[in-house]
Specification:
about 180 residues, mainly alpha, 2 strands, Peroxidase, domain 1, 10 helices
Length: about 180
Amino acid sequence: MQQPQQYRFLKEETTRERLRSWWTSLDKNRGDRARLCRAERPDDVLLMAPFFRFLHQMPDEWAKAEHILSSAMVAASLSHVRRIQDNETFATQLASPKPGATKPRMSELRFQQLQKSRNPEEFFRRLVRAIRLVEQSVNIVSLAESILHWMNEYRFGADREPQKRIAVRWANDYYKALQKQA
């Protein structure tokens, strides 16, 4: 039996439920989804009404200056997701092959490039590509947690303990999934 996912940034179940609720609301608000999907950079999202509706549903701290870009990246990235898949972490999904295939959806090279993104714009662009590779079926809580973790490391530097770094967590999930397929 798989251990339940432990979250560092989305610790509260109420926050995870608010995130799911907002994502579900995008089906009724297709215009919001479309506008968020058209964003080329996280900064573009900061000027959109759908983003402010997102912030209204999330905890107040998500709207604080130090968290606003992370929040924008979460909203824009989740707008690309069409179906929720809660069985695996986002990184595990990237290693999983399409039905009937043997290769991972995201190659090791692209996976490493995603991990080594140098700035939020590059990371966002690669995330959107990764979401497409998993056919827009994503564990949205795992994805949001990963974005918040990456942005935290971008702003403040990586944790001194390697096992607490997002790149190490992703690599662990990705390569474990590859091992299971071998």
